[in-house]
User: Fold Bifunctional ligase/repressor BirA from Anthropogastromicrobium aceti.
Amino acid sequence: LGKNLMVYDVTDSTNTRLKLAGEQGAPNGSVAVANAQEAGKGRLGRHWETPKGSALAFSLLLRPQIQPENASMLTLVAALAVSRAIDGYAGIKTQIKWPNDIVYQGKKLCGILTEMSADMDQIHYVIVGIGINVQMTDFPKEIQNTATSLKLVTGKTLLRNELLAKVLEEFEVLYEQFVSAESLKNLKAEYESRLANKDNRVNVLAPSGAWQGICLGIKEDGALLVQREDGKVEEVIAGEVSVRGI
Ligand code: BTN
Assistant:
């Protein structure tokens, strides 16, 4: 991974750049990284701030030979890679807020946006876009209470290039394990050991309404298992659903 590296000082969005490269045949493992993004994209159509020099913003292009319906698990694989890399490099213990936010003491350190181009039975490419808050000390008002950075958490100035290398190193190993199983079979135990709110009460906010339960863990296909008061275990599928600790 990362052998084909596209580096930008300022760009619109590394996901957008890499999508274009993907259409033009860029190889598996291509990486686009930017010092600043002017149109950074977040999940659910949100904007993602990438102030110059203070975030690690990059995207990874993958061409996995797996069924398209299994591709959404890649975002959980990426979360695991980032959580491992940050812990190793920054010397802290991060958690994963299902499906793919990295948090420290409940505050968001990293977001991941996965986009895919595929037809019914074949993936053309998957773009995994990763934004890690490294150096920022000020956040926009809307996220002031919910976001944090490695600088705020550790007090240290960490090098974004080194962190990028660590994430790619971890991802490479986990990616192989995931693709060969086409499931999270081998990664489930570690994912669950890093899962925020595991064994705790959570609020599940679905388009059809909100309900509460105990977060039990994940399934090998990436669904979150939440047990209702009446004992019934529900499989929560990522998408429009938000799960919060209470
Ligand atoms: C989220 O909403 O939590 C996902 C944020 C993903 C941001 C990253 S930054 C690098 C890549 N390029 C983008 O435009 N978005 C992703």
Notes: Residues 201-245 form a domain with the SH3 type barrels. fold (CATH 2.30.30.100).
